[in-house]
Amino acid sequence: MPYPIENRPADLRERMYFPEIIRGIGVLTKHFLRNLFFARDKNPDILERRRGEFGVSDNATLQYPEERAPYPPGYRGLHRLVPREDGKPRCVACYMCATACPAQCIYIEAGEYPDDPIEKYPVKFVIDELRCVVCGFCVEACPKDAIRMDSGEHTPPSYERGAQIWDEKRLLRGPSVSYQYDPWLRRGSPSIPADKLEEMRARAKPFPTVATDEYAQTPGFSVRALAQEAKDRAERPK
Amino acid sequence: MNRLIGMVVLIGAVVAGLIGLSAVFYLAAGGLAYVFAEYLGAPPSFGAAIANVVTLMLVVMMISGSLLTVAERKWSAMMQNRIGANRIKVLGSALGGIPFLAADALKMLTKESAPPRGRTRILYEMAPALAFAPVFALFAIIPLGPPVPLGSIIASAAGALGSAGVALQVASPDAGLLYIFAISSLAVYGTALAGWASNNKLALLGGVRASSQMISYEVSLGLSLVGTMLAFRTLRLEEMVVAQGAAVIGPVPALGILLQPVGFLIFFASAFAETKRAPFDLPEGESEIVGYFVEYSGMKFGLMFLAEFVEIVVLAAIITAVFLGGWHPLVVSTEWLRQTVTPLWFGAICGGAFLAKMIVLMWLQLTIRWLLPRFRFDQIQKLCWKILLPAAIANVFVTAGALLIDPSMQLLAWIGVATIVAVVAITAAVGRAPAPGEHGAAHVVAGH
Predict the structure, then answer these.
(1) For residue B253, what is the DSSP state?
(2) Do B371 and A61 touch (CB under 8 A)?
(3) Which residue in chain A is spatially nearest to B78 when comparing CA positions?
(4) What are the pLDDT digits (tens) for B54-96?
(5) Which of A34, A38, A59 is best to mutate for the B interface (most B CBs within 10 A)?
(6) Which of A18, A23, A42, A62 would you mutate first to test chain B, the one with the most B CBs within 10 A?
(7) Under a CB-based contact definition with an 8 Å cutoff, are residues A49 and A61 in contact?
(8) What are the chain B neighbours of A29 within 8 Å (beta carbons)?
(9) What residues of chain A lie within 8 A of the CB of B429, using their CB?
(10) Are residues B190 and B134 in contact, defined by beta-carbon separation less than 8 angstroms?
(11) Mean pLDDT rounded to a whole number for chain A
(12) Which H/E stretch holds residue A166?
C-alpha cells in the first residue's frame, strides 16, 4: 500500500539521530518479539489468514511448494480439448483456433466419422506449447467451446523439446461439457447409442451468454462465486 | 499458543543451559588447576588458565560466533516478518535453522580456493589469520565469572590449595582495557593487507576504507572508556565488574551504563564501527565494492566472515563487563546469592548471567545492523571526528569534574540518571515542532 511521504527538513530531534535509532530499535523489537513468540496463521484459505493481530505473528510468507495461492479467475493455464460425454472431442476441426493463433502453434488435420456424413473431427490436433504465447485467442475463437485454458496448470517441464508438443491424446482431458444446441444432441449421431444420447440430452446446459460465466469454466471454479466471496470478505466487519 | 509455550520453555532452557555450562567451565578450570598443583607442581592458576582457554575461547566464543551466522538469518527474518532459513530439515524439523551451520561449514571447507594472479603471496595467505587472530585474542581478558575458591570445587583440594581461587578468565593483565585497545587496533592489519595483497582495485578500496575508518574510530573508542576508568579507578576488567556491584543510589548498583551513559553510547557506536558491520560496513560495501575480501574464497573468506561474528561476541562481552555489571545477576542481590548457594553454583549463576547479557547485546547489535542503511563515507568520518570525539572528550571532563567534587560516584550517578532521563524524554517526544524557514538547513541534516 503506497503512502505519501511528506518531504520536509528534519527537525532537531531527528537531527540528533540517536533518539530516532532508539525508536527504530523499538519498532524492530516489537516485530521480533511478536514473530518470536507467536506462530503464523496457517489457514489453508490464504486470503483469510490473519496477521499483525495479538496472538498471531506478522509473517506473510507463503511456504510455496507446500502452500500455494489460488490462481485468479480467468487464469490461462495449459490448453485442453473439451471432451463430449461419450469421450470424443467437441472439436469439429473448423480451423478457427489455428487461424486465430498469432504464434501459429496449433496444427489440425480434419477427418470425418465414417458413419456420420455431416460432422468432422480432428484426426490430429497438435499444440506446440513451446511456441504458444498463452494469449487465449484460440479459446475466444472457438465456436464450439471445444478448446479451453481452464486447467489451472502450468505447462509441465520436460527434458526434451518433443515432450512439449501436445497431441490430441494428451490434450483431450478434463470434465466433459454438453450444450442443448449441440448438433449431435439435437439430431442425433450414429456414433452415439440411443440411451447414451438421452442421458447426454438430459444433462446438457443452455449456452452461456457471457464467456466467463460459470458454465464456461471448470466445475467448482466459478467467477461469480469468487467475486461474491471477495465482496463478502471485504464487507465483513473487522 | 503452542509456540508461545514452546518459546517460554526454550528461553528457560537456554538460561538453565547457560548456568549449567558455567558450572561445567568452573569444574574444568578447578579440575585442571588441581591436576597442575597436585601432580605437576605448577601453580594452580596455570591449569585454570589452560582450561579457560579451551572452555571460554574455543567453546564459548567460537560456538557463539558460528551460531550467530545462523542467528543473523533467523533473527533478521523475524524482524522483517519473514521465516528465514528453514529448508534443511533434520527428521522433519528445521531446528531453528541450526543445521545450516553444518551446511555452511561443509560448503566453506570444500569450496575451491581461487587465488588471484599477481597477488602478494605471503600477505594474501596471512591476511585472514591476521584479521582473525586479534579478535580471537581479545576475549582472553573477559571476566566471565567471579573467582571461586578452588577448595569448594574440588573437595580434596581444600587443604593446601583452598585459598587459591578459580575465575572464568583466561588472563588478567594489569593493563586491562589498554590490552583491548592495543589488540583491537591490530585487527586493521588483516583487512588492509587483504585488500592490498589481492591485487584488485576494489579490494584495495575496501582495505583503504577499512583502515581509515578503523583508525578514526580507535580515537573515540579509547576516549569513551576513559570515563569508566576514572570512575572505577582501575583498568582491570574484573575489578570494574566487582566495583559495579556496589550500591550507589540507594540499592541501585553502580552500573557502568548508569555512571557513563554517554560513554556507553560512544563506545557502542565506535566499537560497532570497528566490527565493520552495517551501518559501518563500507569496507565490505557489498552493493558497491565487494570489499577487501573480494578475492578470497572458501575457508579463507570464511575466516574473515567468522572474524566479524566473533567481533560481535567480543564487543558484547566487553560491553557487558564494562557497562552492564558483568557477572552480577542484577535480578537478585549478588551478596544474597553468595550467601545462599554453594560457591560453585554462585559462580555458575553469575557466569550464566554474564552469558545471558552477552546474548542480549549480540541481539541488539544484529538489530542495529538490520535497522540502519550504510552510511556514506563522509558521514562516517563526520560522525567520528565531529560528534563522537568531542562528545567523548566532554564526557571525560564532566566525569573527572564530578569525581573531583564527589569521589563517592553519587554525583556522577545522578548526572548519568539525568542523561538517561533526557535521552528517554527526547526519544519519547513524538510530535514535531513547527520549524519555519528551516529549508536551508536541509543539507546540513544529512551529515549525521
Answers:
(1) E
(2) no
(3) A32
(4) 888 888 888 898 899 999 999 999 999 888 888 888 887 888 8
(5) A59
(6) A18
(7) no
(8) 367
(9) 13
(10) yes
(11) 82
(12) strand A165-166
Determine, for residues B370 and A28 on separate chains, whether the beta-carbon distance falls below 8 Å.
yes
Residues 132-151 of A with CB under 8 A from B: none
Contact at CB, B438 and A11, closer than 8 angstroms: yes
Secondary structure in 3-state letters for B110-156? HCCCCCCCCCCHHHHHHHHHHHHHHHHHHHHHCCCEEEEEHHHHCHH
d(C-alpha B19, C-alpha B351), whole Å: 7
Show the cell assigned to B13.
Answer: 532452557
Which of B1, B73, B81, B448 should we substitute to test contact with A (largest number of A Cβ atoms within 10 Å)? B81
Q: Is any Cβ of chain B less than 8 angstroms from the Cβ of A18?
A: yes
What does the DSSP assignment read for B225-252? HHHHHHHHT-S-HHHHHHHTTSEEETTE
Are A183 and A141 contacting, i.e. CB atoms less than 8 angstroms apart?
A: no
Enumerate the β-bridge partners of residue A128.
A165
CB-based contact (8 Å) between A62 and chain B?
no
Percent of chain B at pLDDT exceeding 90: 32
Chain A: nearest CA to B280, how far in angstroms? 14
Residues of A in contact with B372 (CB under 8 A): 21, 24
| Contacts (Cβ under 8 Å, ≥6 apart) of B126 | B193
CB contact under 8 A, A35 and B371: no
Interface contact flag, B1 A23, Cβ < 8 Å: no
Residues 6+ apart with CB under 8 A from A75: A152
In the DSSP assignment, the letter for residue A158 is: -
Q: Which of B81, B265, B444 sits opposite A35 (nearest CB)?
A: B81
Cβ pairs bridging A and B (under 8 Å)? 79
Amino acid identity of A33? L
Phi then psi for residue B142, to 5 deg, are -75, 120
The answer to whether the Cβ–Cβ distance between B364 and A25 falls below 8 Å is yes
Residue keyed to cell 499458543: B1
A109's enclosing H/E stretch is strand A106-112
Q: Is the pLDDT of residue A129 over 60?
A: yes
**Averaged over B313-322, what is the pLDDT?**
93
- The predicted pLDDT at position A211 comes to 52
What counts of helices (H) and strands (E) characterise chain A?
8, 5
pLDDT of A44-73, one tens digit each?
777 778 887 888 888 888 888 888 777 776
Write the CA distances from B31 to B142, B169, B342, B346, integer angstroms.
21, 15, 17, 17
Q: What top-level class would CATH report for the domain A80-225? A: alpha beta
B322 Cβ contact list (under 8 Å, min separation 6): B177, B225, B228, B237, B240, B256, B267
Give CA–CA dist B76/B70, Å, rounded: 10
Return the residue in B1, B8, B79 with the most chain A beta carbons within 10 A, the one to mutate for interface testing.
Answer: B79
Q: Which residues contact B94 (CB under 8 A, 6 or more apart)?
A: B85, B86, B87, B88
Residue-level length of chain B: 448
**How does pLDDT run across B98-135, given as a tens digit for each residue?**
888 888 889 989 998 888 888 888 999 899 999 899 98
Q: Burial, B290: exposed, middle or buried (Cβ in 10 Å; 0-12, 13-18, 19+)?
A: middle
Tens-digit pLDDT profile for residues B346-384: 999 999 999 999 999 999 999 999 999 888 889 889 989
Encode pLDDT of B201-260 as tens digits: 999 999 999 999 988 899 999 999 999 999 999 999 989 999 998 888 888 888 889 999
Domain boundaries, chain A: 13-69, 80-225
